[in-house]
């Protein structure tokens, strides 16, 4: 993100959001009413720090945090100039991200299976 302390700032913001609204509440029609939903974009070569992210969520936010593992990364513009970002993510990388979330104890993963979008 080009911000030296991005992870710390982001984590503090997520903690504060959870403090204010709590875990996501969904009504019987499946409509979100209030609460925190975390979306995590999987990047190639583990660059998103998925293991650290899901461990942070499970240990410092809540095991009931509604989480969406996003698989739509594709390289654009200057990403092609960075070898570690110059390719789409693989199915194996997405599966690993979901498994890491399960291993961390997150029990509210988005029901929709992550779909890799090819552009």
UniProtKB/TrEMBL annotation:
Name of this chain's protein: Radical SAM protein
């Amino acid at each position: 993100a080009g911000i030296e302390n991005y992870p710390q700032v982001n984590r503090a913001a997520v903690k504060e959001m959870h403090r204010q609204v709590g875990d996501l509440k969904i009504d019987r029609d499946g409509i979100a009413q209030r609460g925190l939903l975390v979306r995590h974009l999987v990047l190639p070569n583990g660059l998103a720090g998925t293991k650290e992210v899901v461990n942070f969520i499970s240990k410092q936010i809540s095991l009931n945090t509604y989480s969406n593992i996003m698989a739509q990364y594709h390289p654009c513009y200057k990403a092609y100039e960075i070898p570690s970002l110059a390719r789409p993510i693989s199915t194996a990388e997405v599966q690993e991200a979901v498994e890491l979330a399960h291993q961390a104890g997150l029990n509210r993963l988005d029901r929709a299976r992550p779909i890799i979008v090819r552009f």
